[in-house]
Amino acid sequence: MALIINDLCITCDLCLAACPNKAISAGEDIFTIDPDLCTECVGHHAVSQCVKVCPVRAIDPDPAHRESREALQAKYEQLKARKAA
Ligand code: SF4
Ligand code: SF4
Predict the structure, then answer these.
(1) What does the pLDDT profile of the chain (85 residues) look like in tens digits?
(2) Is any ligand 1 atom within 6 A of the Cβ of residue 18?
């Protein structure tokens, strides 16, 4: 399942550098996560790095993007292949 940033976000920037997939960007008022790029850190880390560094609990599972671990792993493999191409 991709993650989503809620309106508790204080645009502190910490998650931006922490994301191994460059899935996070600065939005108009709060930061946003591209669900096509978020693998919940599967393939890189055991826990979601953005959640780990966020000081205000502004990152939740995105109910609109439910994915199994296998699907997240497959997304990771696709992103890796795209990067290598
Ligand atoms: Fe990036 Fe991982 Fe957070 Fe997804 S869970 S946005 S891949 S840091
Ligand atoms: Fe927003 Fe949390 Fe990311 Fe900081 S770490 S920009 S508060 S989501």
Answers:
(1) 789 999 999 999 999 999 999 999 998 899 999 999 999 999 999 999 999 999 999 999 999 999 999 999 999 999 999 989 8
(2) yes
Does the pTM of the predicted model rise above 0.90?
yes
CA dihedral 68, 11, 78, 81 (to 10 degrees): -150
Pocket flag, ligand 2, residue 14 (CB < 6 Å)? yes
- Whether 51 and 2 have beta carbons less than 8 Å apart is answered as no
Ligand nearest to the CA of 8: 2
Atom of ligand 2 nearest to the CA of 53: 5
